[in-house]
Amino acid sequence: MKKIKHSDFLIVKYIKFLEKRGIPPLLSSMFFGGIFIIFIVFFYIFYGITPTFGYLSCVSWLLIGPYLIYKAGEFIDDLWPKMTEILNQNDISRLQSYEKTFYSCKYLILGLPAATAVSIIILLPVLFPGIAPVPPTCYLIFYLISWIILAILGSIGVWGIFQLIRLINAIGKCDLNLSPLSHDKFGGMEFLADFGIKATLMYSSGALMIPMVIDLATRGEAPKQVVLISMFGSGVFAFTVLLSFLVQIFALHKAAVRGREKLIRKSSKQYRKLLQKYEQEPNVELGIRLLVMQGFFDEAYRIKVYPWDLGIVLKLATSVSLPIILGLIKVWFPWLPIS
Question: What is the pLDDT of residues 63-116, one digit of tens each?
């Protein structure tokens, strides 16, 4: 399989640049996020500005966010060679357009409005001093930049999961060449289910920003409109995580059912032909072929049609619920040294 030529995201270029110099991608990602943590510590020591728990939780995503974007590219590169086992070359070439779209700058359709909205909210105290105290200029600049970066990088994840849903849905409509003898018991589609589930789990890491919403909701001075919009956005995010999981599950389910029925019809037809020949002229060779075809039919009938289990559901639920629990820590333990 030829790899699709595309331009990497700037954050991925940064990680690859350091990787060529022997620095592991995860370490590069943590260094990127660590810069923001250092600035937070700096402002706490020299200006006495205490970060909110919600903001700390959001910034902590920058420790792993770049690494997740980098890994998404690796997952995609590993996907296409395996596709040749279940799809023909024409279908694969057509579906690779989704990868081109993913690596395009179209994610800014989401990122720029999000960054603009965040900037307006942060600059409100400057534009209208009566709303809230204006923080030191250097801290305001840092706070603004960190949120713009969060919005831009976060939009890559949202855009990526949207393209993934489209891709899996398109694959589910293709005529798949399933193999009942595949070790995965899913007709050879387990790699595809694994790819989608991992991508959804990576996307759900964005739930680390939910504590910021809880933080806003528990602050008396927070404008009600901002709180409502933030809570609505968090609800939409949690829904998209669930939706991305369910769309993939049911798209692959439909493909598996259709592929299994195709195999059963084909093997049943061949079995009847062999049986007619055996009835007309019984011999050992035809008997063995009948037994083999019977085994093939049984394996086709046993192909799984749902690519998930309880463990996957628990992982997905934990990835979203854990940040919510963390966000409530401030409510449960108000004596913690965070504002």
Answer: 999 998 999 888 888 888 888 888 888 888 888 888 888 888 999 998 999 899
SS (H, E, C) the chain: CCCCCCCCCHHHHHHHHHHCCCCCHHHHHHHHHHHHHHHHHHHHHHHCCCCCHHHHHHHHHHHHHHHHHHHHHHHHHHHHHHHCCCCCHHHHHHHCHHHHHHCCHHHHHHHHHHHHHHHHHHHHHHHCCCCCCCCCHHHHHHHHHHHHHHHHHHHHHHHHHHHHHHHHHHHHCCCCCCCCCCCCCCCCCHHHHHHHHHHHHHHHHHHHHHHHHHHHHCCCCCCHHHHHHHHHHHHHHHHHHHHHHHHHHHHHHHHHHHHHHHHHHHHHHHHHHHHHHHHHCCCHHHHHHHHHHHHHHHHHHCCCCCCCCHHHHHHHHHHHHHHHHHHCHHHHCCCCCCC
Confidence of residue 310 (pLDDT cuts 50, 70, 90): low
Averaged pLDDT, 294-312 = 74
Contacts of 155 (CB under 8 A, 6+ apart): 107, 108, 110, 111, 114
CB 158 within 8 A of CB 110: yes
pLDDT band at 20 (very low <50, low <70, confident <90, very high): very high
- Residues with Cβ within 8 Å of 27's Cβ and at least 6 positions away in sequence, in order, are none
Report the pLDDT averaged over residues 109-124: 88
Residue 303 gets the label, from left (phi > 0), alpha (psi -120 to 50) or beta, of beta
Three-point CA angle 239, 240, 244, nearest 5°: 120
Per-residue pLDDT, 339 = 47
Of 236 and 217, more confident = 236
